[in-house]
Specification:
- By secondary structure, this protein is α/β, with parallel strands linked by helices.
- The chain has one domain: Metallo-beta-lactamase, Chain A (4-Layer Sandwich), CATH 3.60.15.10.
- Helix content is 29%, strand content 25%.
- Strands 7-8-9-10-11-12-13 form a seven-stranded mixed β-sheet. The protein has a six-stranded mixed β-sheet with strand order 1-2-3-4-5-6.
- Helix 7 packs parallel to helix 8.
- The longest helix has 14 residues.
- The radius of gyration is 17 Å and the shape is globular.
- The protein starts with a strand and ends with a strand.
Length: 251
């Protein structure tokens, strides 16, 4: 399976995955122009995309969807009902292509890829994360969640690759000068994971299969790649784990 985190952070999120002749995005939160540029860097093109899966309606995960679906009319759009409706309200736009609606917690197949959807705690209508499986490899993608639930642990266990939110360094966030209400939201159960929370999650779900961890959705003001990497490295050393690649993602 191919995976490339094209962009991750509050300025936009998009993840490319492919197996066989099936090519999908998880989220479309960057402009069509940027998407074309990022895909070109990996020798791929918008015209090759089969589907987009949307995790939730916050605009950093969906703002590029209207232009993308117009540029690629054959593109299949996937979301649960709450997210599909929330996207159109948030963007004040009706999608040119019809939605493929699934119920949170159900599985479905897109070409060579089997998709598992599962609920995550975040401050949006009906947010989900995904596990993508091509029959040989499992990739878990969970980039916006405020706490780790048994459902999250169960689905992310035994993956080959994890794309996990390492949003903030807690000390940096508390000292950031941001409004206290915003700090509370980020730290809350429906906010975002800290570096330490992400490390704890990986520790709970990793098995001998795990080969790579993408550190996603890093805050520009309240985190650094070095801090996020350090939290994961401490955990991996504690568990005598070697051979696992740590990769901070684009912001």
């Amino acid at each position: 399976m191919e995976i490339c985190v094209l962009n991750s952070g509050s300025n936009g999120n998009a993840i490319y995955l492919a197996a066989g002749d099936t090519r999908i995005l998880i989220d479309a939160g960057i402009s069509l122009r940027m998407l074309r540029q990022r895909l070109k860097q990996i020798d791929r093109d918008v015209g090759e995309l089969d589907a987009v899966l949307i995790s939730h309606e916050h605009t950093d995960h969906c703002r590029g969807l209207p232009n993308l679906s117009r540029a690629r009319p054959e593109l299949q759009l996937y979301a649960n009902e709450g997210t599909a409706g929330g996207v159109e309200v948030a963007l004040r736009a009706t999608m040119p292509s019809p939605w493929n609606i699934f119920e949170t917690g159900t599985d479905f197949t897109i070409g060579a890829l089997h998709i598992q959807s599962f609920a995550v705690p975040h401050d949006s209508g009906d947010p989900v994360a995904y596990v993508v499986d091509d029959g040989r490899h499992r990739v878990g993608v969970a980039t916006d969640l405020g706490t780790v639930t048994p459902v999250v642990r169960r689905h992310l266990r035994d993956c080959d690759v994890l794309v996990i939110e390492t949003n903030h360094d807690t000390d940096m966030l508390r000292q950031s000068g941001r409004p206290w209400s915003l700090i509370q939201r980020i730290l809350g159960r429906q906010g975002h994971l800290s570096n330490e929370q992400a490390a704890e999650l990986v520790e709970e779900v990793m098995t001998e299969r795990l080969r790579a961890i993408f550190l996603a959705h890093l805050s520009e003001d309240c985190n650094t790649p070095d801090n996020a990497m350090a939290a994961l490295r401490i955990m991996l050393r504690r568990n005598n784990c070697t051979g696992i690649a740590l990769m901070p993602t684009h912001r």
